[in-house]
Amino acid sequence: MWCAGFMLEMFNRVRVLILLAVLMVAGMPASIAGPYLVIDADTKLVISHEDAHRRWAPASLTKMMTAYVTFSAIRLQHLSFKSPVTMTARAIIEPPSKMGYPPGTVFTIDQAIKIILVKSANDVAMALGEAVGGSEEKFVALMNSHARRLGMTNTNFANPNGLPDDTQYTSAVDMARLTLAIQKDFPQHAHYFKIPGLKSGRRRLRNYNRLLTRFKGTTGMKTGFVCASGYNVVVTNERKVKQKTRRLIAIVMGARTGRARNALAAQLLTEAYEKPAGFVLYNLENLPAELGINLVPADITEDVCRGKKRSKAQREAAKKDKKTKKKKVHTLSLKEREKKYLSKPFNIGEYLKIRLGRATGPNPHGIRVSSTGGTPKDAIATPNRKPLSECDMKTPAQLAETELPKIKIKKISGKKKRRKKSRKKKKRSAVVAQILSCIPRPMAKPVLEPIDGLEQVSIGAGGARPYLPTKRPEAAKSE
Predict the structure, then answer these.
(1) Is 262 helix (H, G, I), strand (E, B) or coil?
(2) What is the pTM of this model?
(3) Tell me, what's the pLDDT at 324?
């Protein structure tokens, strides 16, 4: 009897190992460009991974750390969700994706967080960083201090928005650590990462994370894209399995398209739920690094962006190469994977309206308040402003007398009229930015506060003041 029981147990184990091998060979798509990682959020056990320690450009996943630093400053009561953020001369020159607000526009930190996590606006992320830290440099120092405290040893940040920089990199393991920290330290702010979209005037800004409305159980997080990184995503998902709720985190980096990124993340999560819970070798802390790992961040610009501009002869040659290559057995095409792992879009709630102004909380460092109350439009934090000696104009009086270019449009119709108006507006904005960057303004003295586990860096001015968190969006409704 003992021998029979032992043989039956061994047979079951071998059967499970064969099942895992079939899932790994048959399920994985033929072209996985970059690293990926799937972990259990409760136990930190690694379910599947590939090149998880490899350095990669984070792109807009950087804004997750921007939000984390802002939440930390609010918890320390240096500011509140109603504190003002002002579009600065530095912020308005950031490239898209952006909101395009003119310099001097004021909105609350609550609105800024929603914009950077839904629209992924680079100009608003820069303005938020300057408001919370006092300057871009001080805010980046805060980001890196938090990263070291959280154990993100393979990460370095260079700006608050994730725009390309040779010194900015992360890894799938480090992004998993940041995701776990957000869930653990700020569970009350989880609703910011699952907003379906925003309304700004007549514009409807849909969340770039399509898994929110196409993969059931998705509870949020962030996407990112620059040419060097490809399409990245961090997804949190929960599902009931055998009357027990499991919470998983999936990180995908370097996908060639947004559709491929979504399909791969959905596939990895689906297969993770199907795998037996007992067959896990590593957790997040002891996951070994791959042999021969490259310390230089990967750059796949040629494949993601420049590959679209290839000549006809180059495209034909690439097609011939694909035909000659051996195709993997049991692999699915992108359309087949979308049909298998993703559902049709479903509704998860109403779009939230962006409201400018209404900033009544304590003022962050660098924003000047008038004696009559409120924030004047010219109160713009420009820590990197030029001295008057380096400006074209030498005195503030001459700057005040400068005439801005007037927008005059000839009577032309169609696209030409819109293009001409757009060019005029850009010239006008450039002149305004130059003037604002040259006007000297007194800067408030930064307040240095000790933080446990962090270096002593400037977090911002403003007294300790209680705040009321904003209303959470309506509960998600799924079909």
Answers:
(1) helix
(2) 0.71
(3) 53
User: pLDDT tens digits, residue range 411-462?
Assistant: 455 555 566 666 656 555 555 555 545 444 333 333 333 334 444 333 333 3
Quick one: the chain helix, strand, coil %, rounded to 5? Answer: 40, 15, 45
Range 341-346 contact pairs with CB under 8 angstroms and sequence separation of 24 or more:
341/215, 341/263, 341/266, 341/267, 341/270, 342/211, 342/214, 342/215, 342/262, 342/263, 342/266, 343/214, 343/215, 343/216, 344/214, 345/210, 345/213, 345/214, 346/213, 346/214, 346/216, 346/478, 346/479
- Alpha carbon distance 439, 418 (integer Å): 32
Q: Which residues contact 45 (CB under 8 A, 6 or more apart)?
A: 39, 280, 282, 283, 284
- DSSP track, 67-124: HHHHHHHHHTTSS-TTSEEE--TTGGGPPSS---PPTT-EEEHHHHHHHHHHT--HHH
Between CA 54 and CA 23 the distance in angstroms is 24
Q: Each residue of 49-75: pLDDT tens digit?
A: 999 999 999 999 999 999 999 999 999
Q: Is 138 exposed, middle or buried (0-12, 13-18, 19+ CB in 10 A)?
A: buried
- Integer Cα distance of 64 and 49 in angstroms: 21
* CA 155 from centre of chain: 15
